[in-house]
């Protein structure tokens, strides 16, 4: 069984949190497996900032035959985020009102806008209940926001290496990256490659927040003692910038980093703590012990604020990226989450018979 690629077209005006609108949009999305008769086997995945809808590319150890989410058992869905550049409407898309690409005129989005678009797709697919909503990093932010917007839809939430409100530290990292893009003279232009050189530097900056001192020491330290230039670590930074610029664009990077900055589940809900009172999904919060960008204190805070939630700590040398690397640990944590839930339910049934 293989993944299937689809496109959802929404042809009505779509209102944004800013008060601006989009004249419709499309979302590219991937499905894997089939709905069962009860339609209760849905797994919905939210991807990270530079991810795409094909979760088997970047979380391959979680999805597939014989893995945690086997397509023989589950119907798995993931949509490329609104504003993205992997098939969904974004800054390089043509504005139907002008018949020209949006470029810099694409309106700013928040995670609330993005999950609003996701929910229209969910309704189009006729999915009334989702067994598990899972996302990491930016995708974790979106998953939590969505679970709060639609508390009766999502039965379980697996929230990985993310937070309830983006930190000043995280915003500072993102702004430093956008400063690099702004310094690129081409950023002022309306073209597909605007800001591309700046994007390379932005990605190099981002790597310092995604990884950890230990991971660089293990993988990029020089083996000898005589070198005085052309270090591995330096070439690695250049490589990462070039790699991203080859598959992404500066507009989407700018747009989604701003969406990450705006993440605050407490906005217009009386604060974070009050907002979390509305979370109905059985929730597993997952942190990475070396995460510099979304430090584990943020996931522990969420766990403490949500009664009955579970918490798991991944141990990794890879910092924030550990949520993509330590898939064996993550699989064990999710399995334990499901199993403990079943045990608790059986115990409750036995006590009430």
From TrEMBL:
<feature type="active site">
    <location>
        <position position="320"/>
    </location>
</feature>
<protein>
    <recommendedName>
        <fullName>Homoserine O-acetyltransferase</fullName>
        <ecNumber>2.3.1.31</ecNumber>
    </recommendedName>
</protein>
<keyword id="KW-0486">Methionine biosynthesis</keyword>
<keyword id="KW-0028">Amino-acid biosynthesis</keyword>
<feature type="active site" description="Nucleophile">
    <location>
        <position position="137"/>
    </location>
</feature>
<keyword id="KW-0012">Acyltransferase</keyword>
<keyword id="KW-0963">Cytoplasm</keyword>
<feature type="active site">
    <location>
        <position position="291"/>
    </location>
</feature>
<dbReference type="InterPro" id="IPR029058">
    <property type="entry name" value="AB_hydrolase_fold"/>
</dbReference>
<feature type="domain" description="AB hydrolase-1">
    <location>
        <begin position="42"/>
        <end position="326"/>
    </location>
</feature>
<dbReference type="Pfam" id="PF00561">
    <property type="entry name" value="Abhydrolase_1"/>
</dbReference>
<feature type="binding site">
    <location>
        <position position="321"/>
    </location>
    <ligand>
        <name>substrate</name>
    </ligand>
</feature>
<feature type="binding site">
    <location>
        <position position="203"/>
    </location>
    <ligand>
        <name>substrate</name>
    </ligand>
</feature>
<comment type="similarity">
    <text>Belongs to the AB hydrolase superfamily. MetX family.</text>
</comment>
<comment type="pathway">
    <text>Amino-acid biosynthesis; L-methionine biosynthesis via de novo pathway; O-acetyl-L-homoserine from L-homoserine: step 1/1.</text>
</comment>
<comment type="subunit">
    <text>Homodimer.</text>
</comment>
<dbReference type="InterPro" id="IPR000073">
    <property type="entry name" value="AB_hydrolase_1"/>
</dbReference>
<dbReference type="GO" id="GO:0004414">
    <property type="term" value="F:homoserine O-acetyltransferase activity"/>
</dbReference>
<comment type="function">
    <text>Transfers an acetyl group from acetyl-CoA to L-homoserine, forming acetyl-L-homoserine.</text>
</comment>
<keyword id="KW-0808">Transferase</keyword>
<dbReference type="InterPro" id="IPR008220">
    <property type="entry name" value="HAT_MetX-like"/>
</dbReference>
């Amino acid at each position: 069984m293989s993944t299937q690629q689809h496109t959802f077209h929404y042809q009505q005006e779509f209102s944004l949190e800013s008060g601006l609108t989009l004249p419709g949009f499309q979302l590219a999305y991937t499905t894997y497996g089939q709905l069962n008769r009860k339609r209760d086997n849905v797994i919905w995945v939210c991807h990270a900032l530079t991810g795409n809808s094909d979760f088997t590319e970047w979380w391959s150890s979680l999805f597939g035959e014989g893995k945690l989410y086997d397509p023989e058992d589950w119907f798995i869905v993931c949509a490329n985020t609104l504003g993205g550049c992997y098939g969904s409407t974004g800054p390089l898309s043509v504005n139907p009102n002008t018949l020209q690409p949006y470029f810099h005129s694409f309106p700013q989005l928040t995670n609330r806008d993005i999950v609003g678009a996701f929910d229209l797709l969910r309704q189009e697919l006729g999915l009334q209940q989702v067994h598990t909503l899972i996302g990491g990093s930016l995708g974790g932010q979106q998953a939590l926001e969505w679970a709060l917007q639609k508390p009766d839809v999502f039965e379980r939430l697996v929230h990985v290496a993310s937070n309830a409100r983006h930190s000043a530290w995280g915003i500072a990292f993102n702004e430093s990256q956008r400063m690099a893009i702004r310094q690129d003279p081409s950023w002022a232009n309306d073209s597909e490659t605007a800001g591309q050189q700046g994007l390379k530097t932005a990605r190099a900056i981002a790597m310092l927040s995604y990884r950890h001192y230990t991971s660089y020491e293990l993988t990029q330290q020089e083996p000898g003692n005589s070198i005085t230039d052309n270090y591995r670590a330096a070439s690695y930074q250049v490589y990462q910038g070039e790699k991203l610029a080859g598959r992404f664009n500066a507009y989407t990077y700018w747009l989604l980093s701003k969406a990450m900055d705006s993440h605050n589940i407490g906005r217009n809900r009386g604060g974070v703590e009050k907002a979390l009172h509305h979370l109905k999904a059985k929730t597993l919060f997952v942190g990475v012990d070396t995460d510099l960008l979304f430090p584990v204190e943020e996931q522990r805070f969420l766990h403490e604020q949500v009664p009955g939630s579970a918490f798991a700590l991944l141990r990794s040398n890879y910092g924030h990226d550990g949520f993509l690397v330590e898939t064996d640990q993550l699989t064990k944590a999710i399995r334990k989450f499901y199993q403990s839930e079943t045990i608790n339910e059986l115990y409750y049934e036995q006590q009430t018979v």
